[in-house]
Structure formats: structure tokens, C-alpha cells
Design a protein that fits this description.
The chain is mainly beta and 304 residues long. 10% of the residues lie in helices and 40% in strands. The protein contains three helices and 16 strands.
């Protein structure tokens, strides 16, 4: 009789363990850490709160311990109960009062700036998490399934059957205090005064030089020189022929003209010069005129 009772107790315990284990495979949650601008070895502490009720006689939620992560690390997998109904499973009908929350403890010297959760979902009720672990290119969980509180450092999740979610917590390092250690106690160091260099504050300038009168050479060039120039557009007789976004001749902006390929008579070169925005200098339009002297006419052509 005693032996039979022992077997029965062992069988009941085995069923309880199996039931809890089966429940644990319904949803999966992980946490990943992103550290922006801080010491890569800094650790960030997390407190998971995963609870549910109505699990059946003798069953209780598994205990999930606090953990810490450095930038680039991902936590262990937490297998928990689902709490969102789908065609695969009636989660609310089987488990009530489900809480799926992860909290990051405040870290001196850092500000929690973002929590983004992405997930994959298996559509096979008998093949848990067959879709694999989420990546940074996986779909972001809808806002209706995620509640983020950056000030409190928490995220609450609604999870469906066979869904696997990873939440990326991003912390950004804050400026150092007077002691030189981010987040340490003491008076905050004054903000550094931004010094504008004379070069950055200097206005732009431009000058156009080139042929005049009747040049007696076969090739001439219209050249723009100056400071803080970012773009020059050349026009010949009101027709745009060339745009430069960097100097093309010994630090200058040049347009070459083949005198043998332009019409006889008077011609005008116009250069529209644009300057770096930091100079506060408005665009300038510079002009010069010259002529090809002779009796024959040929169709104008320009080369750069």
C-alpha cells in the first residue's frame, strides 16, 4: 500500500512539473542592451516581473531572478505564459492576471532613451518558436501590445502563443560632472563655452577673372577665386554650361572656352557663386564680357 502511494505521489509531482513546463513554452521574452557613448564594460541591472494565476492546483509561477547586461549583450530566454488570444490559443481563457514586465534600474551617468521590442511568431501550435529569435530587422511589436515608460524604465508586454520577443533597451551616456565621473555626486560642471573659430565666422568672398576684349589665344578660361565657396554655376550668353561643387584648377573654379569653337562677336560669361551657410553670405552673381574678333561664324561650343 505504501509503495502504491509513493508511486502515486511521484506521478502527481511529475504531472505538475510537466504542466508548468508546458505552460512555460507559450511565450518567450529576452532583453538586449545598447550602450551609446558610455564605457562598454558598464553593467545595467534589470528586474523581470513575470506572474500569472489560475495555473491549477499545486502550481505556481517560476522564479525569475534579477540580471545585469553590458552593451551588446542579450539576456537568457524567459519562457512565460501568453496573455493575448489568437487563433492558435485562448490565452486569457487559460491564464488570468498575467503580468509580463521588465524594469531597468536607474544607472548613474546614463539616461534611458529608448525601448524597442521586436518579435517573431510561430503559426504551428505544435512547434514552439520555430520562427526563430527576433533580430533588429524583425517586425516591431505594435503599440497596442507594448507599454513603455522611459521615466520608470519599464516595458509591459502582451504576448501571444508561440511568440518570441526581444526588447532593446538603449541608454545614452550623460555629460560628466565636476568630479569627472558620469553620474557621481557633486556639483555639476558648467557647460563648456562654444568658441566659434575666426575661420568659421568669416564671410565668403568671390572674384571672377578671365578674358576681355578680343583674346588672341585659342583657349581662354573664366576663373572664380575666393573663400568659403561651395558651388559655382557658369553660364555663357545666358545658357548654363557647367556646375562645380569643388575647385577644378589649382584651388580655383574654372570654365575653359575654346575660342575656335565660339561664334564671332561679343559673349558674356556669368558665374553664380554660392557660399557655406555658416558664413551668412548670400549668393553672388559675377559677370565678364569678351569678343571673338573676325569675320566667320561657327556654332558656339564650350568645354570644361
Amino acid at each position: 500500500m505504501t509503495r502504491l502511494l509513493t508511486i502515486a505521489v511521484v506521478a502527481c509531482l511529475g504531472m505538475a512539473v510537466f504542466a508548468q513546463s508546458a505552460l512555460a513554452s507559450h511565450s518567450r521574452i529576452q532583453v538586449a542592451k545598447i550602450n551609446q557613448g558610455g564605457n562598454p564594460s558598464d553593467q545595467f541591472a534589470f528586474h523581470p516581473t513575470f506572474t500569472w494565476t489560475d495555473m491549477g492546483p499545486g502550481l505556481s509561477p517560476a522564479s525569475f531572478a534579477d540580471f545585469s547586461l553590458a552593451g551588446g549583450q542579450t539576456s537568457q530566454s524567459f519562457d512565460v505564459a501568453c496573455n493575448t488570444n489568437t487563433q492558435l490559443w485562448d490565452c486569457n481563457g487559460d491564464y488570468s492576471n498575467v503580468t509580463l514586465q521588465v524594469a531597468e534600474l536607474a544607472k548613474p551617468g546614463y539616461t534611458l532613451t529608448d525601448i524597442t521590442c521586436r518579435s517573431t511568431k510561430s503559426t504551428d501550435v505544435n512547434n514552439a518558436f520555430s520562427a526563430g529569435a527576433p533580430t533588429t530587422s524583425s517586425p516591431v511589436k505594435p503599440a497596442s501590445e507594448v507599454s513603455v515608460n522611459l521615466a520608470a524604465g519599464t516595458v509591459n508586454l502582451n504576448m501571444s502563443y508561440n511568440e518570441w520577443a526581444i526588447c532593446w533597451f538603449t541608454n545614452t551616456a550623460t555629460p560628466a560632472t565636476a568630479s569627472g565621473t558620469p553620474g557621481s555626486s557633486g556639483q555639476t560642471a558648467p557647460s563648456p563655452q562654444i568658441q566659434v573659430s575666426p575661420e568659421m565666422a568669416r564671410p565668403g568672398s568671390a572674384k571672377l577673372t578671365g578674358p576681355h576684349g578680343c583674346p588672341d589665344t585659342n583657349a581662354v578660361a573664366a576663373t572664380v577665386s575666393g573663400k568659403r565657396i561651395v558651388k559655382v554655376t557658369f553660364y555663357v550668353d545666358n545658357k548654363k554650361v557647367k556646375t562645380l561643387t569643388k575647385p577644378n584648377k589649382s584651388g580655383k573654379w574654372a570654365l575653359s572656352v575654346n575660342m575656335r569653337k565660339i561664334a564671332y562677336g561679343s559673349h558674356r560669361v556669368t558665374a553664380k557663386v554660392e557660399f557655406a551657410k555658416s558664413t551668412g553670405t548670400k549668393a553672388k552673381t559675377l559677370r565678364l564680357s569678351f569678343s571673338r574678333c573676325g569675320a566667320n561664324n561657327v556654332r558656339p561650343q564650350f568645354t570644361g
